[in-house]
Specification:
The chain is flat and about 55 Å long. About 10% of the residues are buried. Helices cover about 50% and strands about 10% of the residues. α2 (about 65-80) crosses α4 (about 125-135). The chain has helices at about 5-35, 65-80, 100-120, 125-135, and strands spanning about 140-145, 150-155. It has one domain. The protein starts with a helix and ends in a 10-residue tail after the last strand. By secondary structure, it is mainly α. The chain has a two-stranded antiparallel sheet.
């Protein structure tokens, strides 16, 4: 019996998922060490790894690694996306268009609107968690989702809760 197109797509997706999980598995033991000794509440490897309420920092001998992680997180936040100053500017691919009056006005308006949306959202509380993960584990992920109340809502994904692939 021939497979339907949907069944073939599902088979390819499940194969890709299996491959991605296999590739990630080699990192988990390294991530668990970092979690245990530097940032005990930042990872989620299993669906059951949440809201346990138990002590998780027994393995930290001294807090040098944790302090270094927080310092890096703060430095990345201040240097890359500080809410206190403009940290991005929109520009067209063609540099000559940037000086054309209507284009310049549009870019300025959209830049101000984006900054306003970011200020009203929770992105400035999500980005530091992503920067901490980036420093601790070498990767970080977050999502920005449309929200009825805040226009935009950010979600930080703990290490181990997502898979990364190209294409």
């Amino acid at each position: 019996m021939a497979k339907t197109e949907d069944e073939m797509i599902l088979e390819r997706i499940n194969c890709r998922l299996g491959t991605m999980k296999s590739e990630r598995s080699s990192y988990i033991s390294h991530w668990q060490e970092i979690t245990n000794f530097i940032s005990p509440r930042t990872a989620r490897y299993l669906r059951s790894d949440k809201n346990k309420g138990e002590k998780q920092n027994q393995n930290i001998i001294n807090e040098t690694g944790s302090l270094a992680s927080r310092t890096l997180q703060s430095g990345l936040m201040a240097g890359m996306s500080s809410p206190a100053r403009p940290w991005f500017v929109l520009a067209p691919p063609d540099p000559g268009m940037k000086e054309f009056g209507p284009v310049k006005d549009w870019l300025d308006i959209v830049t101000r609107l984006m900054r306003d949306v970011f200020t009203r959202s929770n992105i400035y509380s999500v980005l530091p968690r992503c920067y901490a993960s980036l420093g601790d584990y070498g990767t970080g992920a977050f999502g920005l989702i449309e929200d009825d109340k805040e226009t935009l809502r950010g979600y930080s994904f703990p290490i181990g809760s997502y898979l990364i692939a190209c294409n």
